[in-house]
Every structure is written in structure tokens, then in C-alpha cells.
Design brief:
With 300 residues, the chain is α/β, with parallel strands linked by helices. Helices cover 44% and strands 18% of the residues. The chain has 10 helices and 9 strands. Strands 1, 2, 3, 4, 5, 6, 7, 8 and 9 form a 9-stranded mixed sheet that branches. The radius of gyration is 20 Å and the shape is globular. The protein starts with 7 loop residues before the first strand and ends with a helix.
């Protein structure tokens, strides 16, 4: 009997995801679809029981790399090179498919349109998510389907490899940048959109994904985002214009958070706590982004 060809390769980077990896893989393997798929987990030096959990399922391919070999673009390219499917599905180990149609809802979007390069899922917050983060997700990932044919600088998410599908032939022509610090998906999205392809955001495919970052983690993360953005042509403009953008963004975001929190059904004590969390998060986020702009811009 002839073995049916693999349609989809699901690539999951992981490190110290013992809290999430079993839930993630259980939902992946339980998908209800007509496609044949393989699952590749790339572990970059987990010190917990992540690797042991992955090994529990013999149908999942585990590849182990050293921590210093990991990079957001490089590791996803590594997984794509060994993939057998015509579609590459990238999924974070802490992103849990919400239902059994998560995968088919992604892949079905490609039907009959070769101009579609990639499709990405809606993220919904986990139960413990802080309200400022839940608000960001609601604004950037609404309940309506969106088709993107051009780069929109006001779009918070051009694309997201937290949960996304990419045609392998498109990836072959436009791989992720190996050296990129972070936001490899945003850079990839810009390049394919400028080349005339389309991207689809589909709320029919849903993952549970959110983070309650510490202030230190937020600062570091946004600093890397700022460095990777190439927002300013030189350091002088980053120094001056960046201050106003960072302050303005901080005030705008915190004000919106306060309204959102006050309209919630939480107790007054919890509302005050959430506003304090929001204030700290916005200060550290925009401060980190500002420092990143400075570090990423050219002198002059």
C-alpha cells in the first residue's frame, strides 16, 4: 500500500515548557482534519521535563539543539528545512490550540489562492492574564477575518508565528532572517507583502496564548523589539522624536487600560491592582522600546 504524502509539518520550538508542552501536543495530536501532518519539536536545552514529555509520543519527532544555537528566525528555518509538508505550521509550545479545528481553519484559507503566503491564528488570553495584556490582544486580534495586501505601520501584528501557516514554496523564496533578534515574523511579513503576496488573519483558528511578564522581562523584550524595528534613520532622530513617541505611547496605552479596567466586573481592590500592573508594564515597555531605538539606530 502506498503511503500518503505528508501535507503539513507542524514545527514547535520549545525550552523549559514543562508547564505547557503536554497540553499543547495533546491538542495538536487531537486535531480533526483531512490533512496528514507531522510534528517536529525543536528543544533548545530544556532543564525541566519538557524533553521527557515530548518523548512520550513516538509519533512526534524531537530534535535537540544547544541553547546558543537558538535564534527566532534561525531555529524556525532549521525546522522548515527538515519539514516534509507543503505547508509549514509554526506553533509556540506555550500556545494551546483552543479546539479540534485549529489546524484545518488555518490551512483551508489557502484553498484556490496562490497569492496567499501565510495565515495566522487569533490569540485569546489565558485565565490568569493581566488585563492590560488582554486588552492588547482584543485590539490586535479581533473576531473578524482580515485580509492584508500591503504593509500597514499602524497594524500591531502584521503576522504572528506564535500560531501560523506558511506555504513552503513561499518560505523557500523568503526564509526568515537567521540573524534577527526578535520579531522575525514581522520582518518576513513585510517582505512578502511588498512582493505582492497576501496574508490572512483568521479568527476561526484560535490558540490560548498570553504572558504575564515581569518588568525586567518586558524591558528586555521591548528593547530587542526596538533594536530590530529600524524605525529611525539615525540616533539624533531616535533621541529626540523617540522621547515623544515613547511618552505619548505610554500615556495613550495607560489611559486606555484604565478605562478598560474600570469597565470590568472586578472588585475595586482588584481594579486598583490591575491599574498598578498596567502602569508599571507601560513604563517599562516604552522605556525599553526607546532604549532599543537608540541602540538600533545609526550615529549621526
Amino acid at each position: 500500500m502506498e503511503t500518503r504524502k505528508i501535507d503539513i509539518s507542524i514545527i514547535i520550538p520549545a525550552k523549559n515548557e514543562g508547564e505547557n508542552i503536554r497540553k499543547c501536543l495533546d491538542m495538536v495530536m487531537a486535531q480533526e482534519c483531512s490533512y496528514i501532518f507531522e510534528v517536529i519539536v525543536i528543544d533548545s536545552g530544556s532543564q525541566d521535563d519538557t524533553v521527557a514529555m515530548v518523548k512520550e509520543n513516538k509519533n512526534i519527532r524531537l530534535v535537540e539543539i544547544r541553547p546558543d544555537e537558538f535564534a527566532h528566525g534561525k531555529t524556525r528555518n532549521f525546522g522548515a528545512k527538515m519539514a516534509q509538508g507543503n505547508f509549514l505550521v509554526f506553533l509556540n509550545a506555550d500556545a494551546i490550540p483552543h479546539d479540534h479545528q485549529w489546524l484545518s481553519a488555518l490551512i483551508d484559507e489557502f484553498a484556490g489562492n496562490e497569492k496567499i503566503a501565510g495565515v495566522y491564528s487569533r490569540h485569546v488570553p489565558k485565565n490568569d492574564c493581566h488585563l492590560y495584556m488582554a486588552r492588547d490582544l482584543e485590539k490586535s486580534m479581533p473576531a473578524k477575518r482580515i485580509e492584508k495586501a500591503r504593509v500597514d505601520r499602524h497594524d500591531y501584528f502584521l503576522f504572528s508565528t506564535v500560531s501560523a501557516a506558511i506555504r513552503k514554496d513561499i518560505w523557500s523564496a523568503y526564509p526568515f532572517l537567521d540573524e534577527i533578534l526578535i520579531a522575525e515574523d514581522q520582518n518576513w511579513a513585510e517582505r512578502v507583502l511588498k512582493s505582492g503576496y497576501k496574508l490572512i488573519y483568521t479568527p476561526a483558528s484560535v490558540v490560548q496564548h498570553s504572558h504575564n511578564y515581569s518588568l525586567k522581562e518586558l524591558f528586555s523584550l521591548k528593547c530587542m523589539v526596538g533594536r530590530s524595528s529600524n524605525k529611525f534613520s539615525n540616533r539624533a532622530s531616535a533621541l529626540l522624536a523617540g522621547v515623544f513617541l515613547a511618552l505619548g505611547g505610554m500615556i495613550y496605552k495607560f489611559s486606555g487600560d484604565c478605562i478598560y479596567i474600570l469597565r470590568s466586573e472586578l472588585s475595586l481592590k482588584r481594579k486598583i491592582m490591575e491599574m498598578r500592573i498596567s502602569l508599571g508594564a507601560r513604563i517599562f515597555s516604552f522605556s525599553g522600546r526607546y532604549i532599543g531605538w537608540l541602540k538600533g539606530s545609526r550615529p549621526g
